[in-house]
Amino acid sequence: MICDAGTLKTLNTAAEPFLSLPEFYHEGDLIAVLTAQPLDRALDYRAPEGGCQMGAFVEVPLGPRKVLGVVWGPGKGDYDLSKIRSVIRVLDAAPMREEMRDFLRRAADYTLTPMPAMLRLATRAPGLGDPPSMRKIYRRGTSDPERMTDARKRVLEALKDYGDLAFTLRELAEMAGVTTSVIKGLVAQGAVAEEDSPRDLPFPRLDPSLPGKTLTEDQAAGAAHLAREVVADRYGTTLLRGVTGSGKTEVYLEAVAAALAAGRQALVLLPEIALTAEFLTRVEERFGAKPAEWHSGATMTERRRIWRMVGQGQAQLVIGARSALFLPFQNLGLIVVDEEHDTSYKQEDGVLYNARDMAVLRASICGCQVVLASATPSLESWANAEAGKYQRLDLMARFGAAVLPTMRAVDMRGESLPSDRWISASLQRAVEDRLAQGEQAMLFINRRGYAPITLCRACGHQIGCDHCDARMVEHRFLKRLVCHQCGESKAMPTRCPSCDAEGRLAPVGPGVERLGEEATALFPQARIATLSSDMYGSARALKAEIKGIAEGAADIIIGTQLVAKGHNFPNLTLVGVIDADLGLQGSDLRAAERTFQLMRQVAGRAGRADKPGEALLQTYQPEHAVIRAILGGEEEAFWAAEAQARQQAGVPPFGRMAGIILSAPDAALAFDAGNLLARQDAPLRRIGAQVFGPAAAPIARVRGRHRVRLLVKAEKSAPLQEALSKWVAQLRIRGDLRLTIDIDPQSFF
Ligand code: ADP
Ligand code: ZN
Question: Is the pLDDT confidence value at 686 over 90?
Fold first, then answer.
C-alpha cells in the first residue's frame, strides 16, 4: 500500500460482502460506482436509461471529466440527492463478475491497498470504453485481374491456399512476397475485396486434443493427477517440483489441456515474459495455435484485444506476466505459476502484491486449480506442502539422457589472482576443455554493468548518485554511469567530481561487461556473447540473441541473473559461477534461500541434452553451510534446516512481517513520523505484534527522498492487516510525507 495525503481513509473500507444485493438497477436507481481515481470511496450516481447490471463497466462524469467505473452496489445516499448525476453510458464489455469483485476486495484487504488502485490493475487496457475499432481486411474478390502478372498470381494463390480467408494488407503482402501496391492494384480491379472488420478479433481456437509428447511414467502420473484435479472443478494448489529439464512444462501443459478440454480458461504466469519465444513455440506445437500473450511490452491494441477477449471467453489461454492475474476471466479452470520462487512475482512498485499468493487467492475464490512449478521452490511453498495445505508432485529425473551437472567448489583462497581478474586458473582450464570439445560454457555473475565502483585514485572518492545513497555503476557499453536505484545516468566523467584530478578514475570490482573483457583476453579464439538486460535495445533483440546462442552462435556466454531463467542451451555443458558468495553477504532473511535457488538454477543450465554438465562455484567460503548444501544437492535437508531456523526466529513463513517505509524530502519529517508510530504501538501490541525501528533504510535516500523503515513482526495467526490500518491511521500524513506498507516484504532495501 502506498498512501499520500488523502487516501489513508480508504483503508479497510473494502470488505463489505455484497452477497444479497440486487443484480440489476433500473433507470434512476441510486448506485455506487467505483472508479480508478484516487478517491476514498465509491461515488453515488443514478442508473442510466435502460438500467445497468451489478458489475457493469460504465462511464461516469467526474467534475469536468468522464471516467471509467464499475457498478459496485446500491448508492450510499449520503450526498445531496439533487446534485447526483447520471451514469453516461454502459460500456460494451462483460460486467465484472462477482468473483472478480470479491478477489479485488480481498486482495485490497490483504495488501492494504485502496480499492481504486485495485480497479486500476483490473482495467489496465486502454480504450475499454471505445466503440470497437475497425481495420481493413482483404479476401478474394469476384472478378479476375485484367492482366495477370507473376506478383498478382502469387497473391491470388496465397488467398486460395488459405481457403479464401481474410488477411490484413501486411499479412497478405508478406505471404505472397509482394509489395502492398500490388494488392491495392488488385482491389482497384475487383479481384481482391477490401472490407472493414472489427480489430479485436477472437483468438484462434486451441485444440487440446492434439497429441502431446509421450510422457515418461513419472511425468504421466503427474499429468494425470493434475488433470483429475482440474476436472474435479474445485480449488486446490499443487507444488510441482522437479529439477530443471525434468519436464515440468510438459506436465503442466497437460493440465492446461484438461482445462481447455473442459471448456475452461487457463492462465500461465511466467517471470520473464519478454523472454518466452521458446515457450510460446511449445504451446503452439501442443495446441495448434498461438495463445494470448500479456505483458508490459504488448502494444495497446493487443492489450485491449486480450482484455476484451478474455472477458468474452474468446481467449482460452493467456501466457502472461504477473498482472495477467487481474484479467477478467469468465471461466478460469487453472493458473500455473512457473518458476514460482522467482522474486519478480513480487511487485515492488505501486500495489505491492505477490502474484504467487494472489494466484492462490484468486483460485480459491473461483474454485480452480493452481500449479506452482519450480526446481527450487520458495520456502513458503515448500512449508505449505509440508503442512499439507498444498499437494506436492515430484519429478525425479531429468528427461532422457540428461543428468544433473556435477557441482564443485573452486576454493578461491588457494588461487592467486591479480586484483583486476576474476576467472581462476581452474575455471579457465575447465572452459578451455569445453571449447576444445566444441561445447558451450557459461560464466555467471549477478552484476550488471562494467564495474560496481568508480574510484578516484588521487583522493579516494567513490562516485555516487546525486539523488540516492548509492554508488553509480559504470556501464562501458553505454559509456555512462548509472544508478541502479533510480535509473539516473550521466556521462562518464574524465575528472574526479571531488578533487578534479584528471584521468585518475578507476573501475573497481567486476560486472558482467568487465568479465566479458577478461574472457576475451583469456580466450581470444572463442566467440563470446554477453547477456545483460540493459545491453539490448528491446526485448525482441534480446530474444533473437538468445535464440542465436541456443543454436550455437557463441562459445562462451557471459550473463547475469537473466540467463538463470529457463533458457534452453542444448550444447552448454559448463557453468562457472564467478562469485558464489555474493548473495550470502546481505542481512536479508532470505539470503540463504536466494543463493541456494540461484546457484541451483544457474547450474541447471548445464547439460540439458545428452551431454553431462558441470558447474564450478568460485567461493572464499567452501565450508559455508549454504555452499555445502548447494554442492551436496541435499535439497530436502537444506529446506528442513532453513525452515527450522526461520521457525525459531519467528519469521516468514512461520511468522508474519510487514515493512513500513516513510519517505520525505526532509529526513526529520520522516523520522518524526516513524518515532510517533513507534511510540503509539497500542494497536499492534493488542495482537501481540512488535515494532522495530524507526531506522534509516539500508538505502537511506532514493530519488532525493529520505527513507525511514519500521518492521512489524507478528505471529502467523495474528490479524495483522486490521491492526496495521488502525495503527497507521493515527498518523496524520502531511506535507510531502509518504507511507508505504509492504505486507510479506521480500526486499529490505
Ligand atoms: P522443465 O520445465 O522441468 O525445465 P521441460 O518441460 O522444459 O522441463 O523439459 C525439458 C526438455 O525436455 C524440453 O526440451 C522438453 O521438450 C523435453 N522433454 C521433457 N519431457 C519430454 C517427453 N516426455 N518427451 C519428449 N521430450 C520431453
Ligand atoms: Zn540514484
Answer: yes
